Each structure stands twice: as C-alpha cells, then as structure tokens.
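Quarterly update from the structural biology core.
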Amino acid sequence: MTLKALRRHNYKHFITVAISLFVYQSPVIASDDAYLKELEAEVDSTSIPQTSPDAASQQTKTFAERSKNIEKFEKKLNRDLPATYHAYKRLNRDNQLKVVDYYFSHNLDMNATTHLLFNLYFSSKNKH
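Predicted structure, tokenized:
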C-alpha cells in the first residue's frame, strides 16, 4: 500500500468514525434531556417535606456545631453521591443550610435529605 492510499484509507476511516459517533451521540443526548424533564416533572409533582419541630431547634445550634455538621455532611455527600453533591453546591447558602439541618434532624436519612435537596434545587431552577 502506498503512502497516498494509506492516507486515503485513514481519511475514510476517520470520516466513518466521526459519523458513527455523531449518530450515536444524538439519541444519548435526547435521552438525557428526556430523563431530566421527567425528573423535573416528578419534583414538581411532589411537595417539599415538612420540617419537624426538631429542625427548628436544630437551627438554634451554636455556630461551631453547625459548622461541624456542614463539614461532615458535605464530606459524606461528596464521597457517597458526587453528582448530588454537585447539585447541593449549586444551591444558595440558605437552602444548603436547610438540607444540612434536615439531614441531622432526621436521623441521618440520606434518601429523604436528597429528596429535599432536589426539590429545592429544581424549585430554585424553575424560578429563574
């Protein structure tokens, strides 16, 4: 095979790979969009969990205790659920504190806490 023929073969191979990647990527992007829309619809259809009286008393903790709780929660969330941690970091500071307080006032229930987190995340996103 000559150098010119080899270049032509590599060019055809490159074009084939590029087209196949484009064809494959389009349905993946569409399914991601559909998934996000479905998730937003689910969040819209559910209500934000009501906080208990324990949550109100949790808000009166000292600054040092609260700072430790925030640090513990963020480390655990980042370690165990990095994508959820990313959404948490996009919340405003007040909503982040609500999430942390909720977590510690509900026996470290991460499932309920992430539910609240995404409710706050999507409700703030829908306001913009």
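Residues 3-45 form the longest helix (43 residues).
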